[in-house]
Batch of 2 targets.
Target 1
Amino acid sequence: MQETSVLSTFAATLFALLNPLGMLPVFIGYTAGTSIGVQRWLVLFVSMTVLGLMLLFLLTGTAILDFFGITLDSFRMAGGILLLLIGIHIVTGDPGKAAQDLVIEAKTSDLSEAKSVYRQIVVPFAMPLLVGPGVIANLILYASQARAIQSDTLSLETVEKLLIDFSEKFSMGPAFGRRDRPKTGWKPYPHSY
């Protein structure tokens, strides 16, 4: 009973902290001048980056912080300041301008265009906007809680499966999978066609 309570709390807090619906306007702002095919590739790239970062911090977060001698509270403070500075930059500047200029320069295939835009937006968007200090602290806390319970149903493998399922369902939401199908034949949701 305690395991399902911990897992449901973990899933709810992870959804609230990642806030994929709230990040959708930011994503659209970064990719406003790109085609639907490029946006789909970017969703895939960013989702895999977010999943990789979450798994990294889930499995090694405590060890990384201990190695550098950083407490969880000081990590939260520094991350909050970093998010404040990025937020100020987004409000005062044009977040999609660099990506749009890059797209205008290199009109090639959707995949290569997506790779070039991804290089421009991965640092502010994937980390720290999606995987920020709150998500990292949440992953570290729940990983240590999972180790403390030492149960068969709540193991790190279960939490990893939950993260992968969560990433598939929410990070690559239906907003990008049901509109104009790309001409390349690539189907992000083959079961929905």
Note: The first helix runs from residue 2 to 18.
Target 2
Amino acid sequence: MIKSPKNITTFGALERFWTATNFNESKINVFAQDIIKKETRTGITLMALVFFCLLVSAAFIDRFVSLGGPSSYAYLLLAVLCLHVFLASQHSQDLEVLYLLAISLLVISSTTLVLLAHKSGSFSPTFYAGIALLFIFIPFVPWGLREASLVSFLIYLVITLSILSSNHQFSSDSIILLQFFMLSTAFIVLTMVGRNTDMRRNEIIGQYSLQKSHAEMQLLSYKDSLTDIWNRRYLQEKFYYISSQIKQLRKPYYFILFDIDNFKQINDTYGHDYGDHILQWTAESFSKGLKHGDYFFRIGGDEFAFVITSEPLRLLQTGTGELSKEVEQIGKIEHATVAISFGMITVLPEEKEELREVYKKADKALYAAKRHEGSWLVAGDVSAPDLDQSIGYAFETTQPLGGNE
């Protein structure tokens, strides 16, 4: 049977109040899980502590003011149960277990109240106050209307069945009054729960949207708008995290700086729009060879950087070749080739790495590479004393990369 739009709308409106954990979107459900779990634990803790204080006070009054009434022991036993629920809620990580703890406390408390009523033979004001407190405690736990209705029904069922099985110990009028009292109290409480559930859902959705927008804005602030790769800010803020992650793998990594030779002349000769295209082609060409765990940055202008653990020479040769193809196929006829200079530093796992020092040595290697025509790589160690003399240190590179002379 196909649901009508009206039924779907009604069901969707009811669902806002019915459950506090299902948002019909997996990402929001995951986001809300920890929030709801934390709020539930806080609610059960508060409920158990308030309940404990009230029960201890009631036991004291019953014991000393009422001259040793029999219900004082029942109050103390319930207070012990409250302490147990309090301690168990602090260690439980399962939302369903937390719900069961709250339900157990409320249902067992209702059973104890009925037993006390049987013992006294009447519904005293203290009994009605206890029943009201049981229902009032329900909104302490941030569950939806579904769970709150179940708890209310269990409390109502336990009390009603126990009273009806008492062989006419209580008068019909008092039972009818008790029924009206429980149903009206439950209705008021469930109305509050539904309202709280709707407000909580809207609050969680708002928090998720705000966090999502913040993450998107942060991502945009880390991306270079022209080339869509990571920018200088991302390198500066995340370098320590990136290097630490690689260090845990006990692997060396390569920090590579490169720029396009004579880029200012390209801009001045062919225009800034064409220069932007060169930068975009450069980012696209070198991105093709990146492996998982490799990072590619645009530092600014025509300067780029890599932090990689994969084979560096193959990446640089592939990227240079792809860029040459782009320039030949799409670039201006009079601009046939692009030369790139690379400066590379190898950082071993046991070496302390600071971005400033690594960048400085890679920059020196880059300028050493610029002394050669064509696309050249100068490579060395982070601890190399003079990288100007380190041509071919890591790779025996006797020919320019990409075959350019």
Note: The first helix runs from residue 5 to 18.
